Amino acid sequence: MYTCGPTVYAPAHIGNLRTFVVSDWLRRVLEWNNYQVTAVMNVTDVDDKTIKGSRAAGVPLPSFTKPFEETFFADLDSLNIERPTHTPLATEYIKPIIEMIDILLQRDLAYQAVDGIYFRVAKAKDYGALAQLKFNPTATQSRIGSDQYDKEAASDFALWKFWQAADGEVGWEAPFGRGRPGWHIECSAMIRTLLGDTIDFHLGGTDLIFPHHTNEMAQSEAVTGRPLANHWLHIAFVNMANSKMAKSEGNIITLAEIIVRGVPSLAYRYWLLSAHYRTVMNFSWEALAGAANSLRRLRHYVFDLSEKNKSGGKTGIINQEYLSKFTEAINDDLNLPVALSIVWQLLGDYSPASPDMLTTILEFDKVLGFDLASATEPEVFSEIPNEVKQLVIDRESAREVNDFSRADSLRQEITTAGYAIEDTPEGPRLRKK
Question: Is residue 391 over pLDDT 90?
Fold first, then answer.
């Protein structure tokens, strides 16, 4: 499986990160079904944006991109995303990129223009089929475009960009001229080198269907003569106020901002399970606060189960009825929202003293990825009355939506019930007065 990874010119926002969480869920589901998975996620460390950023910062390209790359992988770790088998940098694959372009030139599927090497879209088989486009690849380029780029057709896209002064020190020697790769050819070369001509799954955001994935498919299949991917998964946007979250729109939220607000990063992973991966989601802090409370409750339950079964000394077995329901959901186009609801059904249907419940939930968490096995509480939550637990959860919800008057009122109720509450970065702590 191949997932189009980040372009490291700025921190990834949470809309970007949705794709990588879904990619992680797909990998976990495949492994759940006993497949051996080779997962590749590329890192685009050379393109127009990274070069522009490094020039503006006055530092070499690798020095500019490396911190963003490190931040990205720290975000993956924070979201409990398993590291892919390979995380190649585009700059490490210049040789296979040049080799693919050479093949396309030899087959007259590419040509040299004033500013670079271009792919002849008119010769691509079924171009635009992935995006369900009715495409006219023979449309001529406008006069302005022709003067600037010398392209044969407006739809032709760059495989290689010849070096220009604005590129500074960024450039590689090639038989067809010094320059750098176009964006689309980078992914094609990495896929072909690491995974072969045809892969099982190709993932990315819906915004990549056209032109990126469409162009990837065209150039890869022109070289290999084989389908690029058997299955394509495209993950829907995360919106802010009903507008696509994007750096260009200035309406982004990073994972670091979530953590600074005292919300655990895994709460974002939990929130993503409130909708199917092909459904557009509208982010709000209130919705995230609700997800954080639900995840906190789930971890409390798992901790309680662990404590009860630790004292009982029993080893549970996986509940086959719920295993069947869970497996059916995750294998139905990753219907993970239903899979999560099955976990809550299980908690409501069986006695907390049952070791089978704990064993079953921890088995399901191998797919969900909430790291429930590490659930801890500074004070055994099961010893706190249920009504006090609910007051704590309600207070957390009020604080998340800045309803501090209600939060203060709930704190007073907790105090009246005989408990002192302390707010910490890990969440509220209770102690008996």
Answer: no
Residue 201 lies in a domain: yes
Asked whether the predicted pLDDT for residue 385 surpasses 60, the reply is: yes
| 386 and 361 in a common domain | no
> Per-residue DSSP letters for 104-121?
HHHTTSEEE-SSEEEE-G
Residue 243 lies in a domain: no
Same domain, 416 and 337: no
**CB of 85 within 8 A of CB of 31?**
no
**Whether residue 53 sits in one domain with residue 148:** yes
Is the pLDDT at 398 greater than 80? The verdict is no
Residue 205 and residue 280 in one domain = no
What does the alpha-carbon distance between residue 67 and residue 69 come to, in Å, rounded to a whole number? Answer: 5
Number of domains present in the structure of the chain:
3
103-137 burial code (b ≥16 CB/10 A, e <16)? ebbeeebbbebebbbbbbbeebeebbebeeeebeb
Classify residue 293: in a domain, yes or no. Answer: yes
Report pLDDT digits (tens) over 331-359: 999 999 999 999 999 988 766 567 888 99
Q: What's the gap between Cα 367 and its chain centre?
A: 15
Region of residue 130 (left: phi > 0; alpha: psi -120 to 50; beta: else): alpha
Main-chain phi, psi angles of 314, to 5 degrees: -95, 150
Residues 6+ apart with CB under 8 A from 11: 68, 71, 72, 75, 254, 256
Q: Identify whether residues 276 and 322 lie together within a single domain.
A: yes
Q: Confirm whether pTM is higher than 0.90.
A: no
Q: What is the pLDDT of residue 420?
A: 81
pLDDT digits (tens, 9 = 90+) for 399-428: 756 778 888 899 899 888 888 887 755 566
Taking only the tens place, the pLDDT of each residue in 131-170 is: 998 876 555 444 333 344 578 898 999 999 999 999 999 9
Q: Is 245 part of any domain? A: no
**Are residues 88 and 141 both part of a single domain?**
yes
Two structure tokens written together for 269:
């992973």
Q: What pLDDT does residue 407 have?
A: 86
Q: Which domain holds residue 411?
A: 381-432
Tell me, yes or no, whether 163 and 285 share the same domain. Answer: no
